[in-house]
TrEMBL record, chains A, B:
Domain of life: Bacteria
Taxonomic lineage: Bacteria, Bacillati, Actinomycetota, Actinomycetes, Propionibacteriales
Family: Belongs to the ROK (NagC/XylR) family.
Descriptive protein name: ROK family protein
Amino acid sequence: MRRAAGIDVGGTTIKGLRLDASGRRFPGPVPVPTPTDEAALVDAVAALARELGEPRVGVCVAGIVDETRGVALSGSNLPWRDSPLRERLSDAIGAPVALGHDVRCGARAEARWGGHGGVRFLYVNLGTGVSAVTVTDGEPASGPWHGEIGQPLVPDPADPTSLVSIERLASAEAVTRRYADRSGGLPSAGADVVFGRLAQGDPVAAAVVNEAVSALAQCLAFTVAATAPEVIVLAGGMAQAGSALVEPLSGRLESLLGILPRPRLVVSRLGPDAEAMGAAALALSAD
Amino acid sequence: MRRAAGIDVGGTTIKGLRLDASGRRFPGPVPVPTPTDEAALVDAVAALARELGEPRVGVCVAGIVDETRGVALSGSNLPWRDSPLRERLSDAIGAPVALGHDVRCGARAEARWGGHGGVRFLYVNLGTGVSAVTVTDGEPASGPWHGEIGQPLVPDPADPTSLVSIERLASAEAVTRRYADRSGGLPSAGADVVFGRLAQGDPVAAAVVNEAVSALAQCLAFTVAATAPEVIVLAGGMAQAGSALVEPLSGRLESLLGILPRPRLVVSRLGPDAEAMGAAALALSAD
């Protein structure tokens, strides 16, 4: 059966896997740290591609990506601006490369192997950032700026005179940082640690999660109104919190939707591999 | 040249026009009041269709409409629920009828004759309600609940302990009613009168318009983030306010978009005929 390598270039690590056309995945090597220089990053991806040893390679990156032209317009934590990344990666690897946006790739994988094939769904990534992709008939909406729902500004609940983006309240990274800021320390903890503290009754964790849930509910209410999904699939680091996130978010969202039909809120079944799987799927469908 | 009748069934009046395939419009008779009973309403539309005397008839209605099945699911001010309206109108008129959603029809007309053909735009109707349609490659997004951006609830600026829908703050009807409530009277005035008072320095008019603009800006910031339009076209009664609406709204929206690209904000050039024109266009493209 045809197989492809899928490589997910994140803000902190680069990870890869092999995928066959049925959606079966084969683990790749241990993830490597993401270099902060573009040339070094291209070399690291090429080395990983060689190690995975598949003739087809799909790569997905964070930030703003024009998938049609194969250009990485900008990456919040990644070192490029208007970079012809598809061409650079193809040159370094010595073979054609499919380049995708990480969240759109996750949505692609979710559409094929997540059990939502026939349904119009919103794939919401809660990781370093917050963004969403509408998937209709298995196809994620296209366009580089589409679904950047973490970018609008709202009053900061900790200081209502200043504005803050949804992403800086409700991403996994924001929850981690806001908890560390207020509890005085815990710099290396992830959102899972904050949800762990919440379960133990920590009031700072409860306040931070509550602010994240409120911001997300507000943002999702408008996104649901604009795009009418039947299902919302939560993915990315914070989705690992499961019902500790889904239950309050679902209640809050419900209270803001007025007469609109309620979408079902679920956590992605594919877990942290979804984006690399979607990148491999891009490569598989390229020939 | 082929022509069609376009009939726009609004919450208060039913109006019709004739349209040829080039987009040239020919005025119809004086609008008639919208009956509150469905059978009487169907009769009134059929009488208007006979008067317009074209072999092709397109009808658009407000509320939630399933255009594919020709069913009016609900109409906030209109007397149906899950009504097979396309079939009822065809029976009454004695010819096939194209049935559309009023705002999607307005968006269709705007795509063809508004000068935004090649551009991805958001068509925002500010009339009895608030709703929006994303138009890509000339095609409005489909689905009955798509674009109901006026439905999410936000804290009421006049009483922050209670929630109110965007529509009840920012529709032409809401602006009119909220002004009347606070100024003690003026029940029959429209949003244009409120904007007239605003121009004369009326502080109640200024407060009501300011609350409407804030609510709209918030709602549009999230809709822009989700759907990435290049242009926002304002239509419906309140769009007639022109720069008195566009300037503050554009400034407020700008302040909430963070790093997102700014869409251009314009007023529809087609005016109040847009929806009937789009209904006629549906009929023209049906054969």
